[in-house]
Specification:
Length: 479
């Protein structure tokens, strides 16, 4: 980041107080530095700013035309002293404007060149010690705990991280045993990482079948963690008001579908904050909604997407879901084995044929029919319809509508700014595609090894990653 010294803004060359003249234009003639990130101090030079900052504002206008108000410190009439605001993440070319309210009018001065915004992204390990060797889970302080198979995450409103450890043996050449503190093999465990107390604790240490991506519900009386189980209708509830005691439950099959759970599995739970229901897309593609109070399930759609993803009679797809904070009823679904992403507006299903409507393709070249899912596997950034993924798994949203995806087979984190509509693109903000490894640091250095889980902090600003094969939890600092 560029540095410079700020001098008193009351001292201009003439020693007189520079007043704004509404009869004269206002202009930006220069600014320094010409690039930077959030909170970078800047000097903007120009004419007719006026020393009185009442009604004066600095604006950073991003590539989408969105205006972000800068942090104005002071003015001496010819120089403004300000800070770069937040909200410009992953933008690049920023236009600068200075405005002054003058009665019912607004006087505008614009820079003739762009400010270059530099997104600062870094990875830090916050839970666990790194290894690629099999080991037993041993809990303690955050950075001295051993995790055996951290697969998926969810976070509560106090920023406690709930970690589902998950035996990984999906036939992809990346196998990892899940072992409890006694060193015994288990299909899954649930841990809680308390960032404030600097401790990791075990909530559930043994399951008979694999458990998958959890969700945290704030529903009154039912607040807690909900964990899907591979076993058909089985899931676990760990309620906060019961000290997260584990309760094994089953949802009630929808009317007319008594065999819904036959050779069928649930890979992800997600909570819709509008209706507080649990949503999941099962292995064979069924979109199911579960009432956590009654355990009754509804079959909303018979199948999401157009391909099963695996050949054979019992073939299907590992599916991972998340709801948009910008369009709260829009459910995004990563179809892992098809290397693509779809979406469904769950509040607009009236009139849709639940047997034939498959949702809408969103990202991944195979989703749009130009190639099959095998040819669509790979890595490619760019337009949604041209992008390629490699076993995308858990997804999460930051509060500004950016979708982060654990692209496990590419060993990196992908991102889509969903607020851009048809102009949205798939990018790779962190990780080196196709290069597995372990390194904390910035974009030039950071490496992952088969990341499978992501979750966002309570305020929607910080992304956490379950780095499966490195057996640690990482934090993304994105500014």
């Amino acid at each position: 980041m560029s540095t410079f010294t700020w001098y008193s803004c009351s001292d201009n060359d003439s020693g007189a107080i520079a007043k704004f003249d509404p009869s004269q234009p206002m202009s930006i003639t220069d600014f320094y530095p010409d690039s930077g990130g959030i909170a970078t101090p800047m000097i903007i030079s120009g004419t007719n700013f006026g020393a009185d900052t009442t009604g004066l504002a600095v604006w950073y206008v991003d590539e989408d035309g969105v205006r972000h108000k800068g942090g104005l410190v002071s003015s001496n009439g010819e120089k403004l002293y300000c800070y770069v605001p937040s909200g410009l993440t992953y933008k690049r070319n920023i236009k600068l404007e200075v405005t002054r309210a003058n009665g019912s009018d607004t006087i505008v001065g614009s820079a003739q060149r762009d400010f270059k915004y530099i997104t600062q992204t870094a990875v830090t390990t916050i839970v666990g010690t790194q290894t690629t060797n099999e080991r037993a889970t041993k809990v303690g302080k955050l950075l001295s705990s051993d995790l055996s198979a951290p697969g998926y995450l969810c976070i509560d409103d106090q920023n406690n991280i709930f970690i589902v450890e998950h035996r990984f043996d999906d036939g992809l050449g990346f196998n990892l045993s899940c072992k409890n503190e006694k060193g015994n093999d288990t299909k899954g465990m649930v841990l809680k990482a308390d960032l404030k107390k600097d401790e990791v604790s075990v909530l559930q240490d043994n399951t008979s079948t694999k458990i998958n991506a959890p969700a945290y519900s704030t529903l009154e009386g039912y607040e807690g963690v909900y964990v899907p189980d591979d076993g058909g209708r089985v899931y676990y509830s760990l309620l906060k008001n019961q000290d997260y005691a584990v309760k094994r439950q089953q949802f009630i099959n929808p009317n007319g579908y008594p065999t819904l759970d036959t050779k069928n599995y649930k890979f992800c739970f997600v909570i819709n904050k509008n209706d507080q229901m649990i949503y999941t897309v099962m292995y064979h593609g069924e979109l199911v909604r579960i009432n956590p109070k009654t355990r009754k399930a509804e079959l909303l759609l018979k199948r999401i997407g157009k391909d099963n993803g695996k050949p054979g009679d019992d073939g299907g797809n590992d599916s991972f879901c998340t709801f948009s904070p910008i369009q709260p009823n829009r459910l995004f679904i990563a179809q892992t084995n098809c290397h693509e992403i779809w979406y469904v507006d769950v509040d607009q299903l009236a009139g849709k044929d639940s047997l034939t409507y498959n949702g809408e393709p969103y990202a991944g070249v195979a989703a749009f029919g130009s190639v099959n899912y095998t040819e669509g596997r790979g890595w490619e950034d760019g337009l949604l319809k041209n992008a390629k993924f490699n076993y995308p798994r858990q997804m999460t949203f930051t509060s500004d509508g950016k979708l982060y995806i654990a692209d496990s087979g590419n060993h990196c984190i992908r991102m889509i700014d969903t607020t851009l509509g048809s102009n949205a693109r798939v990018t790779t903000p962190i990780g080196i595609p196709g290069s597995a490894g372990y390194a904390d640091g910035g974009v030039e250095l950071a490496k992952f090894n088969w990341p499978t889980g992501v979750a966002v902090s309570a305020d929607g600003s910080t992304v956490y990653v379950a780095d499966m094969m490195n057996q640690v939890i990482r934090e993304l600092s994105i500014k």
